[in-house]
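PROTEIN DESIGN WORKSHEET
SECTION A - STRUCTURE
LENGTH: 114
TOKENS:
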């Protein structure tokens, strides 16, 4: 999907923080240090969308939000304000009707590795 020619994708800055936290607490192992991984992962067609006061304000007023994850609130608010489709594997967000969602089932790396 990310290799679609001339397509620009938005990435909420908080998503980078989430990756960093997972690495820091040992829930995600990367093949290289975080800075090098970001340098490789952030292709030229990915625009990192900064956290702004408008996004925080939007996150504080999301209707019927399905979980209590502040990062998810900021990600959804970012998608809403930028009028983007949220691409996610998060089952809790799958049916959230107040943002355009493209849900896909995550690849089970455990069964594919065996």
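SECTION B - SEQUENCE
RESIDUE ASSIGNMENT:
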């Amino acid at each position: 999907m990310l290799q679609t020619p001339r397509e620009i994708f938005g990435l909420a800055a908080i998503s980078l923080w989430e990756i960093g936290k997972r690495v820091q607490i040992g829930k995600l192992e990367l093949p290289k240090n975080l800075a090098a991984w970001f340098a490789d992962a952030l292709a030229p067609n990915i625009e990192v969308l900064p956290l702004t006061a408008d996004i925080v304000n939007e996150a504080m007023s999301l209707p019927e939000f399905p979980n209590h994850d502040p990062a998810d609130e900021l990600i959804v608010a970012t998608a809403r304000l930028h009028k983007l489709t949220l691409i996610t594997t998060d089952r809790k967000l799958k049916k959230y009707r107040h943002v355009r969602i493209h849900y896909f089932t995550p690849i089970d790396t455990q069964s594919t590795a065996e």
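SECTION C - NOTES
The two ends are 26 Å apart (CA to CA).
Helices lie at 13-24, 34-41, 53-59, 70-81, 109-113.
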